[in-house]
Amino acid sequence: MNRKITRALLSVSDKTGLLDFAKTLSAHGVELLSTGGTAKLIRDAGLAVIDVGDYTGFPEMLDGRVKTLHPKVHGGILANRLLPEHMSAVNTAQIPLIDLVVVNLYPFRETVAKPGCSLEDAIENIDIGGPTMVRAAAKNWEGVAIVVDSGDYDCLTQELNEHAGALSRKTRFALAKKAFTHTAAYDAAIGNYLTCRELEGEPRAYPDVLTLQWTKAQDMRYGENPHQSAAFYRDETPASGTLSRYQQLQGKELSYNNVADADAAWECVRSFADTCCVIVKHANPCGVALGESTLSAYNRAFATDPTSAFGGIISFNRTVDATTAEAVSKQFLEVLIAPDYTPEALELLTKKTNVRVLKVPMKALHESANVLELKRVGGGVLVQSADTHQLDSSALKTVTAKAPTAQQLQDMQFVWQVAKFVKSNAIVFAKDGRTLGIGAGQMSRLDSARIAKIKAEHAGLTLQDSVAASDAFFPFRDGLDVLADAGAIAVIQPGGSMRDDEVIAAANERGVAMVTTGVRHFRH
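Predicted structure:
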């Protein structure tokens, strides 16, 4: 049923949009109660408002720590309108009913995010009265509407205007659900912050108790396999440039595997500054190339492994034009990702009605990534920071008698960047800013090297005078020998094996230039 709003309590730290909402309430004859700066804002706008201290007969105290914690406030919020004994109790105590509560909380997360924030500052920005009112109103949603998000003001204004100052039961329930998740996230932020700290010493990187929250973006038809259920959840505040900020422009609903593979493609392509195309199949790049145009990059990436590209995910870090869209449309693909598309490209793509076309705002990987990466294991979760390491050419160390040429160094940096996104053990061959053969996910690094060679042969590509990357060190010289036998004349790898001297000697023996990075890029 719709419930008429007769009295509202407004107490917010973020006053965005509040004044217009207060004017709507006042126009519908709603009595306004408020606190501190919120009351001043409303009063200065010429609206009638009652200070909570005057309403309760008990002034704010303890520097504002106590202002709404009063029976006249919470009795008016929590009284169940359907229970006669509740109504009798508040009538006897002369407690008016409060039908609407508008509250957002002290900016705890914003405070602790500031450099140099002290424990004392953090504690003072832990809201007590606000969450208490929010939870009280949300619990009593049948009789009370609770607003915690200024983004809801416009739609609530519309509903109030359409229903003569009343809100529906459906709306009140939706607001209550949002309120409880809001206070849960707020308490989680406090818990995460405090359990990283002791009274003395530097804070720890990871809290003793980790509480995170995501919002469901969509249910999926099934998971990795049809007998598994699945859903996709977004971070509360996704990092800009990440896949979760996608806008689907056309195509079938995204599947679980589509999202997983699309993320692998997007993370890889946005790690390159130059025009790039990345084609992914089953979470591994099967073709990566730079180009003077998106079409050139696509053609070069596709040529790496046309067989694996069938039914894959194609991503670009530049706007897709009509010529590129036409070329891509000739192939069977699941998902196309780019920061934008020309109108002509979108028109061409509409002919491929099943292709899922995603538009994702571009931001370089090293500038914007997940704060934490999570991997579920039986009964627990592994947590780590994102691998946003950028290769600094000045950190490269030439360890062989033969030094790489300038072109080889350029290709080394390219192929090293690709190897970072290939499942371990990873071996990648490349030349002139394009991949030639990719070996992924093998238990033996030697097998990955052999597979990369075979892949190139099947695609009709020569590895002569190519460069190769290994995501981790060579435990023995045999992996290096496979690369040299295939035609690689320069190799980039982390180094750090107990047999580094043996591997370096093998490179010198084979006339291969080798540089080490000192950084490993396992990807499991």
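Summary: The longest strand covers residues 214-220.
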